[in-house]
Amino acid sequence: MAKPLVILTLVFAVLSVAFLFISMRAFKKKRIMGTASNTLAALLMLSLSALFATLTVSTQGYRAFTREEVVAKVTTRRLADQRFEARVEFADGRDTTFLLAGDEFYMDAHILKWKPLANVFGMHTDYELDRISGRYMDLQEEQDNPRTVFALSSSKPLDLFHLRLRHPMLGWLVDAEYGSGTFIATDDHAVFEVRVSTSGLLVRKTGSLNESVPPDPAPRD
To answer: What pLDDT is attached to residue 131?
Structure first.
């Protein structure tokens, strides 16, 4: 997804330099109108280059998709009553094990829906998994018992999802006004698929593992 943004950043940067060069030539020839117009064009191109550079940095970690796809496989192992491990295998090959409390596991994501203008440049819907947590079926237990929540998103200097929420002016380019979450009851040695579509996240149980499967690496708690 970042490739079109990088290309646009470079294109507008080159155009900025080109207009600046033309402006300098006009200045040497004492053409005031030519100097002013080309300087303004150079500043505009530079501003657009800076905008797309910011978008490039702020969308690092997001993955593009055009249809429903599997974003993670989750394998759960019951340790005690309302205590379980959840091993998450991500689409990029990474895997991490979390120690969660509750009856269910919950996962959510940020969804970026680009506007038609951005679609022209090859940018479509993107997502980034944000958090995983344990969830209690009973509301009173949810309020009284320990909560376990872990980050799934990558750390970055800028995040377009939060930039969009803080700066409505970006609304002409991208819609980041919603996230999506899904949850399901856990079983011992159960396997689940978490999928993402343009309408958000969903989770399905796909099977179970044999009891003889060795334990996963030490979980995060």
So the answer is: 93
Question: How is 12-75 classified by DSSP, letter by letter?
Answer: HHHHHHHHHHHHHHHHHTT-HHHHHHHHHHHHHHHHHHHHHHHHHHHTTT-EE-SS-EEEEEEE
Task: Give the contacts of 134 (CB within 8 A, at least 6 positions apart).
Answer: 82, 84, 100, 101, 102, 104, 105, 106, 147, 148
Question: What is the pLDDT confidence band of residue 88, given thresholds at 50, 70 and 90?
Answer: very high
Q: Is 166 helix (H, G, I), strand (E, B) or coil?
A: helix
> Considering only CA atoms, which of 71, 88, 110 is closest in space to residue 194?
71
Mean pLDDT within 60-87: 82
Per-residue pLDDT of 123-163, as tens digits, reads 567 778 889 999 999 999 999 999 999 999 877 666 666 66
